[in-house]
Design a protein that fits this description.
InterPro entries: Rer1. The protein is built from 6 helices and no strands. It is mainly alpha-helical and about 190 residues long. It has a domain of about 90 residues. α2 runs parallel beside α5, α3 packs antiparallel against α5 and α3 runs parallel beside α6. The longest helix is centred in the first third of the chain and has 29 residues. It is flat and about 65 Å long.
Length: about 190
């Protein structure tokens, strides 16, 4: 059967149109879910619970859960980190003496806390990674035999060290990434 170039272009454009429709639908779902923070995180927790149930029921896929745990720990660390260059702050602080100084330019002035990884992207990455891990938990190739207590201990040590470093950094630079306990001002209607 001989295909002309027009048939290929039409087939290609119909496939790209199909992908565009799927992409637009997916983006619409994400956009409508943005204001529902509690519901989004409950959905992510349900996915994680289903994934953990799959791991427990299969008695395997420990490498998959370990990989997901490390990825989520990395995402959480980025979520807690400020967007501005913390390495630059550490280097500048080491170079400076203990004397108080006034701001010389705009870079030295106070800036509000802006996350390196916004909450919505953190949630989106969590859901995507959990869904991918859930799919991998059904593929026998990923059921690598390992002694899971070693992976668990290693994960606990990595979590402890990274959270200790993050908390020390938060104390050193006097920032709190959460708005819990911060003073809130009410709007005054005139």
């Amino acid at each position: 059967m001989d295909f002309t170039q027009n048939d290929e272009v039409q087939r290609d454009s119909s496939f790209s149109l199909f992908l565009r429709k799927i992409s637009n639908s997916y983006q619409r779902i994400l956009d409508t879910s943005t204001p529902y923070k509690l519901q989004r995180w409950l959905f992510a927790c349900v996915l994680l619970i289903l994934f953990l149930y799959r791991i427990i029921a299969a008695q395997g896929y420990y490498v998959v859960i370990y990989t997901l745990g490390i990825y989520l720990l990395t995402q959480f660390t980025l979520f807690l980190s400020p967007q501005f260059g913390t390495l630059d702050m550490d280097i500048m602080e080491d170079d400076m003496e203990d004397e108080p100084t006034l701001p010389v330019n705009n870079d030295d002035e106070f800036k509000p806390f802006i996350r390196r990884l916004p909450e919505f992207k953190f949630w989106h990455n969590t859901v995507r990674a959990t869904l991918l891990a859930f799919v991998c938990a059904f593929i026998p190739f990923f059921d690598i035999p390992v002694f899971w207590p070693i992976l668990l201990m290693y994960f606990i040590v990595i979590t402890y060290l990274s959270m200790k470093k993050q908390i020390d950094h938060m104390i050193k630079h006097h920032y709190v990434p959460f708005d819990i306990g911060k003073k809130k001002y009410n709007k005054v209607d005139k």
